[in-house]
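Lab notebook: predicted structure, single chain.

Context: the supervisor wants predicted structures on file for every construct in the current expression panel, including those that have not yet been purified. This is the next one on the list. No modifications to the sequence; it matches the entry in the shared construct table.
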Amino acid sequence: MKTFKILGLLLTYPSQDVSGHMEELKEIVLKEGILDSKLQTKLLAFMDKLSSRNLMKSQEDYVAMFDRGRAHSLHLFEHIHGESRDRGPAMVDLAEHYREKGFAIDSSELPDYLPIFMEFLSLCDVAEAQETLSDCVHIIAVIGAKLKRKKSDYAIIFKAIESLSDSEIDQEMIAKAVAEDAAEDTSLDALDREWEETPAFDGTASLDCAACPVAVPPASAKSVPSNAQSSQ
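Prediction complete. Output recorded below exactly as produced.
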């Protein structure tokens, strides 16, 4: 279903290319109708707002939200393995899973990038996509909840992705993660310390989690809207 890919595309760095094709993307979402009506209405409103905003301002907000710190990282294994040595094999396994399904990514792209993951799911049948998404939907739900607390418009995309899974979300886990996020020092100095103090490949994982073993995407999902038309 192309809606999966479109949701991922909306999470890539804002570009004129995406904004210029927004009406086309909205038509696909409406035609497929796989989101419930309330979520669909909110998603379409987000798409309208994104396409009408000043592009530079959208890009600045995007960088501030997703590229500074790990709380909202779009690389899913970042939330599971952090910088531990386990992340490398997980990447290899995921990339191999993509290849087995005939989905090739550029060697410069990381397979755990959420927009790429969503593009991969768009190539699967709905049942398989839902099952695969369930492996990591709890992470997506946590990111979305943090964004909602910060009143970010992007929260609706994560809610829409969450709704496409057939898994029940652990609300206690979500509440705990949001509470910890609220108490976290998010100053620029704290962010600098976070990146400096985390030892690379220290053999420890940031989360004790067996999810997300099957699918995750690349660091530059620059897929243009026209490519969305080629997804199933």
